[in-house]
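seq:
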Amino acid sequence: MIASSQTLTALPDPVHRYKSDQTLQRLLANLLEPRALAWLEPLLERTGDNTAALDELATLADRYPPLLHPRDRYGNRVDRIEYHEAYESLKRASYGEGIVGHYYDDRVRETLGVGREVARFAQGYVFGQVEQGLFCPICLTDGTAYLIERYGSDDQKMRFLPRLTLHGGERQWEGAMFLTEKAGGSDVGAVETVARERGDGRYDLYGEKWFSSNAGAEVAMVLGRPEGAPEGTRGLGLFVMRRHDDDGRLNNLHLERLKPKMGTRSMPTGELVLEGSLAELVGDPGRGFVQMAQMLNLSRLYNATASMAVVRRMLTESLRYASGRHAFGSPILRYPMVRGTLADMAVELEASMHLLFTTLLRRGRWLAGTADDTDHGLLRMTTPFVKYTTAKLAVRVSSEAMEIHGGNGYIEDWPIARFYRDAQVLPIWEGTTNILVLDTLRSMRKEKAHEAFFPFVRAAAQSDRRVLQAADELEKALPPLLAGSDGPEARVWCDRACEVLQAALLLQSANDSRSQVMADAYLLRHFSPPAERLQPAHIAHDLTHFDTLVGIG
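struct:
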């Protein structure tokens, strides 16, 4: 290989994860009531203030993944998972800031109102720019608490919720969700775990969970099939299962191994065998999958938030690197193609953030019981496709960031490689792209979500003919999909629907010069005829407005 004449000077300090983020600040100001924003901002600022220290911890936690110790020195099965101190410090820095617990506090809920989900995921978005591995257990702990609160008995709520929602510490319990088996990942109806009733309302679970994220969690939500229940998803029950009994012994379960994963290495994922593990039914028998779907939808929004955190981190790291990397006598930030790549990252981040956070606001209204028909329809339709589109974006932007960093981006000394590895799981968790397209179609076929989608888009598009024309084309192409077509055109339709909705949201919020520049840039990318995209005026847009598009600070 021939060495180039490139040099690298000292880079600017890392950006503050909140104070530099104009997009997040504007969204929160628009979506939250003043008192909710006043409560939230100090949390976001504290996380941003600790950027350098948290980054160092995240690097160490990734470098030294958890270890499984199957037995103690006497030969007893203990399945103890050893975590690096850096991971434990990250847990204190996240749970200790109430990243789960705050949102189960009645006083906080009253302060946040319908902005509860916006605030929750804003906190996660800022933390996710530091550490992706631990963000999964945070999601699962929240989801476990959510299902217990929503479907659990009064006794279950009393026993589980206080410890799941603690602000860290030794007494806190983390949660998990154990669905995937060798026989079925996305095909949840193929679950083979058997639940044998004891006669006292409790069950013994027998089976193997093949991909158990946060494998060391004390509390897990598990899908199993009670003996005699019908096949498919209709026969599944939802169970809450402790890892240990009250005396600290393993609950008739063991880990075969921890998975040697490509990414999210700081968090243990294992192969879990259930050998008569004591569990309790949560909610109604036979409604397990319907109830677990609520946790899946919450997890999909966590997944989208994690994706946005990756995109934001890759943008800020790339801008920082391009400022200090010299090639052929100049910082590479001065070169038009580099600036164009950075501008593209920023525009796609802006559009996806609008889609995600307006979805979160609708979820907040739904939880508060104030959602209207439009909120219900759009929430049901956008939850699956915001997950898959943002996950794909995170992978693409991570790859672009690695190219901007060149060989350094491929080296583990830099954070790009870690985030690139972490991003690859985001299109897989909580349903692959094709599964989520099918779920989007299901929302229209069974719940008529499209009847909310089209009126909203047309009203929000501000009479922009390009978006209105695209909406018309989508509506004309819809009948075969509603009739049952699941071919490749379904994915194309959902991709385009997402672009149309994002464009409409950007136009709806274009009330100042910055947001108008963002809307124009997105429309030029996604709604201009191919020939126009080669015109000098089109290409010059990003370069003319570069500082506005990627401005950090």
